[in-house]
Known about the structure:
six-stranded antiparallel sheet; 11 strands
Amino acid sequence: MRRLTLLFTCLALLASCDQVDCTLDNSVSYTCNFYSEGSKVTLNDVITVTACGTDSVLINKMQGVPGIELPMSYWNEQDTLVLHITGNGYEMKDTIWVKKNNIPHFESPDCPTKMFHFITEVNSTHTFIDSLSLVNPTVNYADVENIQIHFRSAD
């Protein structure tokens, strides 16, 4: 009888263990790489990225990077970002607008719903940015290049 009780107890414990493997990230991000004259470049100047209309600093004083990874807002239809570039004796700003569709992503009843995004349009001001190219509009858990930021040539 004792062995039977022990067996049922072990089976009950095994059955109660949930094998839920929820993703730890609560947001997804998109990757922007830097280009100049058609080639990928490393930005040696200092870059800071802020979310327009808030006091949120998304990237603070990065230097020597070939690109940046930025989070997307959960519900907004458009994100507005300000890129601050500081170099030797100069400081410039450009604004980037990222329009997107928000797509709820359901993994499991035990996991919270995540939000994936589909970028529909990107625009910018043109102080140091020449143009933007939308390479991959789908923003999810994949680590891929989404936007190319093409800098003006230093003529």
